[in-house]
Amino acid sequence: MKTVAAYSVKGGVGKTSAAVNLAWSSSRNLRTLLWDLDPQGGATYLLQTKPKPKVDAHDLVSGKAQLADVVRSTADKRLDVIPAHDSYRTLDLELDSAKDPERRLEKMLASLAKSYDVVILDCPPGMSLLSESILTAADVAVVPLLPSPLSMRSLEQVTTMVAAMKRRRPKIVGFLSMVDRRKTIHRELVESLPRDSEHVLPVVVPYSTLVERMGVERAPIATFAARSVAALAYGELWKGVSAALSL
Ligand SMILES: Nc1ncnc2c1ncn2[C@@H]1O[C@H](COP(=O)(O)OP(=O)(O)O)[C@@H](O)[C@H]1O
Ligand SMILES: [Mg+2]
User: Fold this and answer.
1) What are the domain boundaries of the chain?
2) What tens digit of pLDDT does each residue of 92-120 get?
3) Architecture per CATH, 2-244
């Protein structure tokens, strides 16, 4: 089982959109699970699922309940979801009182190793114990980068954090998100970022109302606009991620 985290220190950069579309691509031929770890529940909403209300963050972290108890199936036979739960707001505190918190998520996920080929973690923004536990569980961290002069800095925040991790370290795969090619600075960054950083793929997800439309359709973009530039870009992103996972 391979684990991918859609991660950034920042919110609103395209993590959830990437997580949902990567999960869709993966589930074309691999048994895939998306775990929505953000209590805002964006991926849960987009994939039309609902949490099992009785099992909360404490039950999962303490081992009173197993992840398998909270898995929901979707219309797609190879795609399952662990929906976000309101109690995930306290995941950090729960981890703080657990033994070996950095490895806790990895251990929880190990119980699913026989059931799935790929797990995608949709992460809340931040740089917390939860982030560290997520990144320790991940083989690859996918980091959406907004095309701004600060994008290199937000990538460096992730590479620095990963370099300081004591246990397993994920590979980092950045890509440019919400690119508007009419803007000179966006075109410049599309050229320079993949050239200047070994961690950035030459994959460009354009700024597109079709990505926003996922919230209306409540479905991955490829299910309603398969030939769009944005859907093709997410397909390319999956190719880059699966190469990084050696799939
Ligand atoms: N490529 C894109 N083009 C246009 N809107 C986008 C794009 N990617 C994401 N969005 C929109 O931006 C908002 C934040 O995206 P989201 O994927 O939820 O980011 P995050 O998970 O990092 O907070 C959402 O409303 C989403 O529909
Ligand atoms: Mg999100």
Assistant:
1) 2-244
2) 999 999 999 999 999 999 999 999 999 99
3) 3-Layer(aba) Sandwich (3.40)
